[in-house]
Every structure is written in structure tokens, then in C-alpha cells.
Amino acid sequence: MKLLYTLFILLCVAASANALELEIFGADGNELDISHIRIINAETGELVAAELKTDDNSYSFKLEAKKLFIEVDSPNHTKYFLPLEINNNDASIEIYLEAVKINPAAKDAKLLVYESECQRLMTHSMNKDNQLFSVSFDNTQEPVKSVVYRLAVGNDLLVPTNADGYIYDCDRFYAVNNIRDSKVNVEFDLAKFPVYSESKKIKSENNIEKQIEFLSKINVIEEKMANAYASISGGSTTKITADDLQPDFNKITKMLAEPPCEFYKQITYASYIKIAGSAFMTANSELIDKKILAAAIASIDFKSPLWKYYIGSMGVAVTAKQVLGEDYSNYFDSLMLSNPYPEIREDFVFQSLVFAYTRGEKTKVRSLYEHLFVYFPESQYLSSAKQLLDKIEDSMVGEKAPIFNIDALDDSKIKLSNEHFKGKYLLIDFWATWCGPCVREMPHLHDAYEKYNGKIEFLSMSLDKTTAQIAEFRGKKWKMPWNHAFLPSGFSNIIATRFKVKSIPKPVLINPDGIIVAEGAALRGANLINTLKMHLEGK
């Protein structure tokens, strides 16, 4: 009887498993020389299957888990990520991987050589001869494991095209090159690189094609939003407006009402968190529906694998925390302290520190740096965090604004001074026409002026050599229709030294009581609108 009962249990378990068949191709439809698949239980984060194949492109799994994350990787192809729900349904899927896109302007490729623990051992500059990048060096370690960077759009890591083999470790492929005559010769030949394809393809012969179609729509929205933020953070002066992003928010909101399965409701919520982050960081936070964002956060447990395997960057979580405010502070504290993935906790602490730095919150920066130092002493972020801590310790936030009294550039009869702006918010921008980063701030300054003119005064103090340079600049694209002053002697000018101007642009925000409440990064790029909104609107 006990034997029959045990057999019955085994049969039930076997019957509950789902068959998952996968075939992996390049974008051209040809089989790939090597590929790797990882399958993660999306509810527990447990790795349930991992397989590397060099002989064929077909994979077959029997899986108990119903909700999965599937990661497909192949050298010099973009990693494909598929959330999938297979409730009592076998699945057969064909996946066509895109080749990584090469930056046509790339010329200074670097070779990163690693040791077995995935720690970088050394960096070599590669020589370029037409389409061939190469480097030769002495090495005693056998074999040499390496990747190439600064060649791909988006800074993807590539593997050399003359590899003797491949290693899959730490969630990515590395090339293996053997030592010959005490030398290692590594090449990356663009002529041997797979052709980039614009379209990613995936096919299925069963009822999961609705999930695949739904995911492709989500991917398009996320990519557009990510590109919008990358454009701004990369220094582009292209203006990203709410009108540019509104259609994607409309689409994702509609998709929340019609997911193909319950798992994809969570995936769509997670996607909303990500695109809300892009909207916030491009100064378009008015697009974010706080009720939807709150529902998204509430639907995803702070221990959920979604934070690691789908949402990814904690920068978006920090954004969500700022948008939702104190109502969700306990949730984000739990995310920082109790998420099961140490890399997520570490990233969240650092991103929180960066955000506190941009807001001039000295005490919080100190506290977060201490947390990072104590709990993550080997953190890759520690050096950057220390630099931010040192900078904010030297900042003037919280201090009385230095005394200044200077002629208005457009009317010498007007004296611009602390007294002149008393009782008003004042944004002082130390700049010059020859300063590239200063010029890249122009769209943000003009947007802020258009939005808040009347609620705050603007004053640009120029460190140019002559006033004629300022007049010529303002006579072209950027009119700068606000207060101006000219600082003879540039950085040596008494006003510049009093405000500790050591580099430009240096924006400074002074409140109606004459206290400096923000400076530097908090007032640059998309942060400018967000910081002004916090002070002028209390948001």
C-alpha cells in the first residue's frame, strides 16, 4: 500500500511538469555555434535549469515551475530575456537573437583580461587596421579569458573573433585565447562579425504566442523610454517633452487592463515602474499616474525576483520612492535592507546616495555612505560614493549665500545683489559660452524659465573673456531672457571665489531667506526641473 501511494505521488509530480522546447538561431535564421540558456523560477528566484550547447541549437526541459524567466545568450549577440507562464501547457519556442550593434565611430577598443573569479586583471588598448582591432602581449596565465569593450552601441561587451574557445561564467560569455610562444594574440575582426538586424524575432506554436506578442510591445515602450533618458544623460540638447512620452504611457496603461495572463500583469506593473523612472529623470514626472505606480509597487513584494531579473536598475526604484513619498518609505527601506539579492541591496544604497547628493542632503549622504562602507566593503561603488561624500561635505548647501553686488549686463543702472533678490527664490548659473557642458544645459534652463518665470529669478554670471562673446551667443539659438552679469577675471573674480566656483557650469539655488538650498548636480539636466518643483511646489 505504501509503495502504491509513493508511486501515485511520483506520477502526480510527473504529470504536473511541463515540457519546454527551445530552438536558438541567429537573426539570419542560421544555427549559432554556441549558446547558453538559464531558466529561473520567477516566484522564488531559484535557478531551475542551466545548459551550454555547442553541438546543436535545441534545448528540452521538464519543469515544475509555472512562472519562469528564460535568459538566452550567445557570443556577440544581445541577451534575450523572456518572462513566461506555462500553466499546464507544453511550450515550443524558436528564438532568433540579434547581433550586437557596432558603433560605426568606434576606434579606441579596449581588451579586458579577466581571472577566474570574473575580476578584471588588466586592460590593453587595441590597435586598429581598417576593420581589424588587435593586440599582442606577454602572458603566463593559461588560458587568457577576455572581452572587448568600446566597440558596441550601448557599451555591450563583445568577445574576440579569433577565440580558441568560450567560457560562460558570471552570467556572460568570455573568449579563451591560448598562449603561443609566450605571446597572446587577440583579434576582433569586424568583417567576421554577424550582421546586425533591426528586428528581434520569436515564434511559438501554441497558446503562449499572446505572451510573446505582449512582451514585444512592452520591450518597444521600454526601449523608447530608455533611449529618451540616454539622450538627455549623454549630453544631447534634444528636448524630451511630455508630448513625446505621453503615447507610451497611454499604451502601457491600456495594456495593464488586458494582460494575456496573471503573470504578465506583474510584468506590466514592473515595466510601469521602469518607464516612470525614465519620465522622472527626463523631468516629465507629471506623466506618472501615482495610483498606478502605487499599485505597481504594492503588487511586487520587496523580496520578489522581479527586482533582480526584470526591473534591474535600482535607480528606477529610487525614483518611485521620491514620487510616492513617505507612504511607501517602509517598503523601500525593506527593499534596501531585506531584499534577498545582495547586489540589489548594494545598488539601492548607492542609487539612494546619488539621489540624496543631487538634492544636497548631506546627512543622508553620510548615512548611506556609512551603510555602504560597513555592509559592502568590497563594493564597486565605494570609490564613487566617497567622491560624492567629499564633494557634498565641501558644498555650501545650508549656508547663507555670500554677499554679491554687480551691474546688470543689460542695464548698468541696475545693481544685482542679495538685496535686489531678497524674498525671492534665485537661481544663479555660473557659465561661459566656451564651456560645452554649459551650452548643453541651455534647453533645461529655458524649460525651467518657461515653467517657473514669476516664481523664481534667474541670473547667469558669465566667466567669458568679453561681453561681446555673450551677446553673440544670445543672438543665436539660446536667447537666455533673464538677468545677466559679467565676471571680469573669471574664476579669480571675488564673486566666483566667494561661491567656490572651481568649475562650470555651477548652478546655485538660493531660497527667499537667502539660504543656499541646492547646487551642482541637483540643478543640472533633468534634475533642474525636479529640484525646482520640490522647492517651488513642495513636490
Explain the overall architecture.
Mean pLDDT is 86; it is low at 1-15. The chain is α+β, with helices and mostly antiparallel strands and 539 residues long. It has 16 helices and 23 strands.
Query: Helicity, in percent?
Result: 25-40%
State the helix count: 16
Low-pLDDT residue intervals, each spanning 5 or more residues: 1-15
Radius of gyration (Å)? 27 Å
Major sheet attributes: 5 strands, antiparallel
Can you tell me the overall shape? globular
Through-space gap between termini: 69 Å
Give the helix/strand class: alpha+beta
Task: Sum this structure up briefly.
With 539 residues, this protein is an alpha+beta fold. It is built from 16 helices and 23 strands.
Considering the chains and any ligands shown, give keywords for the structure.
539 residues; alpha+beta; five-stranded antiparallel β-sheet; five-stranded mixed β-sheet; 16 helices; 36% helix; 25% strand
SSE map:
Elements: H1 2-16, E1 18-26, E2 35-41, E3 47-53, E4 58-63, E5 67-73, E6 80-85, E7 91-97, E8 110-114, E9 120-125, E10 127-129, E11 132-138, E12 144-149, E13 165-169, E14 172-177, E15 183-189, E16 201-204, H2 209-233, H3 242-256, H4 262-281, H5 290-299, H6 306-311, H7 314-324, H8 329-338, H9 342-358, H10 362-375, H11 382-393, E17 405-408, E18 411-417, E19 425-431, H12 436-440, H13 442-452, E20 456-462, H14 467-474, E21 483-486, H15 494-498, E22 506-510, E23 516-519, H16 527-537
Parallel strand pairs: 1-7, 19-20, 20-21
Antiparallel strand pairs: 1-4, 2-3, 2-5, 5-6, 7-16, 8-9, 8-12, 10-11, 11-15, 12-14, 13-14, 17-18, 19-22, 22-23
Helix pairs in contact: 2-3, 2-4, 3-4, 4-5, 4-7, 7-9, 8-9, 9-10, 9-11, 10-11, 13-16
